[in-house]
Structures are given as C-alpha cells and as structure tokens.
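Milestone M4 deliverable, item 7.
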Amino acid sequence: MTKAEQGELLRHTVDTVGKVGQPGEQIQKVISVGMLSEGWDAKTVTHIMGLRAFSSQLLCEQVVGRGLRRTSYELNPETGLFDPEYVNIFGVPFTFLPHEGGQDGPPPPPTPKTAVEPDPTKAQYAIRWPNVVRIDRVFQPALKLDWARVRPLELDAAQIAQVAELAPVLEGKPDVTRINRIELERLAREFRTQRIIFETARNVFDQMKHTWQGSREVLLAQLVKIVEQFIATNRINISPPLFYQDDLRRRLIITLNMSRVVQHVWEAIRQENTERLTPVFDRDHPIRATGDMRTWYTGKPCERTRKSHINVCVYDSTWEASDAFVLDDSDSVAAWVKNDHLAFEILYVYRGVVRKYRPDFLIRMKNGDMLVLETKGQDNEQDKVKRLYLDEWTQAVNAHRGFGKWHAAVVRNPGEIRDVLMRHGTS
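Output delivered:
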C-alpha cells in the first residue's frame, strides 16, 4: 500500500469513528499530532490532554475550542436555556475563561442522548433528491397579467407604525429626554404615486434582469406599465376604508409596505409569464441522499422506524409521531424520511429576504413517485409564499426529467394524511 493510500485509509477511518459498519466503528480514542489545531470538526470531545509544547496563546485557544463545540442545541424545557456541557482539559496552558462548576461539586450527569444516523442495514429505504441551489426562469418576451386572476393584496393600516420616535444613545441606553418625533406622513408626501411605481418596478427589475433574454430597457418599460396598472386597480385592499379613500394615506400605507407590493407583483408576473423553469444544481453536490446525513444526538422523544433509512424518527409534536406511524404502516409508501438534519432546503424570497424552507417529510411511493409532504394547521402569508416556491421546485425538477416524478402536498389535520398518501400512491 502506497503512502497516499495509507493516508486516505487513515483519513477515512478517522472520519467514520463510531459509525457502524465503517472502518472507524471500533475506535474509542484518537491520539493525533496537530489535528486539533487544524479544524477537525468533532462534537463529542469530552477530554483534551496536551502532550506537547504550546508556543502561543492562539494555539491554546484553537485546541481548547475543539472541545467547546456543543453536542446538543436542544433547549431545556424547564429553563428555556441550553444545558451546560463540559470538557476536561489537561496540559493546555489556557486561562482566558474562568473554570465553571468547581465550587458546587461535580456537574450533573448529561441528559441521555440518542444517536440519529443512517442505518446501513436499511439501505433499501435510502432516498435521493436533487440539490437545487436556484431556479432560472425563461419569461415570455411580452409580459402581461390577467388582473382578474391576481389575488388582492391585503394591507391593514392598524398594523403599520405611522409615528416614529428617535433618541440619541448614551452609554448603550436611549436618552429619553431628547426624543424627536417623526411623522411618517412626510414620507408619503415625498413619495408621489409615480415614484412609488418606479421604485416598485426597479425592485422587480432587479430580480428579473439576470435571466431576462431580451432588452433590459424593454423589460423595465413593461414592468413600469404593469406596476402602474396594479396601483390603479382594485387589487390593493386597505383597511380601514378611510386609508383607501384618502390619497395621501393610501400612498403612506403603500410606501411603508413597499416590500410586500414588490413581492406581490413579482409573484404574479412569475406565475403568468414563465415559459420554462430550469433547475440549477450545486456544483459540488448535485445530488444528496439520506446516507449523507452525519450522526447527531438528541434528547427529544424518538422511535425506531421500519421504512426509513434513518434509524429513528425524532418527534417534535404528537402530530409528527402520528404521521410517522402512518408512513411506516401505509401500503402506499415504499420509503420515507423526516427532513431533519438532511439539508433538503428550498430557497424562497419573502419580503425581499432570501430564506430557507424545510418541508417536513420526503416520501417515495410504491409507484415510484416522490412526495414532499408538509404538515400545517393554518397558513399565514409567509407559508403561502413557501408553497409557491415548493410548487416551482417540483415543476422545475419534473421538467428536468432526470429525477423521476415529484409531487408536493400539505396535510391540514392529522387524519388527512392517509387520504393524501392514497391519492398520490395511485396516481
């Protein structure tokens, strides 16, 4: 065996410490030179012993830092805080932080944890999915909207601050004796209707220009026209009616909700003017799978699974526990997994901010179709935006034709999941 092969074998062995069926399965202790100062990511370090000379305080900090990574980020239900975790360090001259717990006796025993990891004996239940980093859209050259199909934008003046008070900060605290009051109606006077139209069109333009295949000047002109029509139509409902009837107050509410107006127009344009959706995959990891999940530990309730590649399912609610039981029991389900620490994420934009949406379950049906399942009692505005992006994700992946047929569904109550599974299992 060459030195390169020996090095690769050693690296693979260290990377699989404690994993069943892997070269590092039986290893309990690791003695290394230099590894702890080079960013080895181990969350289960409980003891560090320095058997070398330390030439700098920075090196001491790096070594000690490897033992300060938490094994669990679950909150204690009684205190609402993280439980303390400890690492015993010997032979490392590090005195930056005071030692905790020495006056009150030994620390309490840690809460029992369950290792959550892929089960190699259940590899037949492995699930794979495309790792989509974004979705490119090809738009129609001539944008148009059917205003009868565009849902109204609901704005409530009672939920919007119309007066702001500013005060200078002295020694970290506001000086309430020097408060200046700002009436936001001045903002509405400055933002004439035409300026609102151009600002909204510009923000939508910024989101479309990267994939627009025609003239950008033509795109901007079309967006200005669409936004102008949107502002002039009855597609914006403002309550109470006084704010809708008064032009100044109407401009104020629209100005203070600019991000919502932009998102509303952007969603309407996407839905009616997209000719083709093209998924763009992660260059380094275009496909992810349940087997890629790294072992993690939990103190939450969990049960072993039958049809999931992951050894246990962690329950965050009784509803999830009920769903897991149904998924294991259903004749329509070939395999399933709870989307927990799997890195299955769908990027979406809400009020101008890019966010990550993590649906609850991934399911492979007996007919070979894939189902992304979400359990949700009631939807708010943000949840509806998530659904739109999930629908786009499934459309783009299905159009690619390289990952089978994907569906998305939402379960509104615990008793509905069987009907959803039966419907998608026979389609």
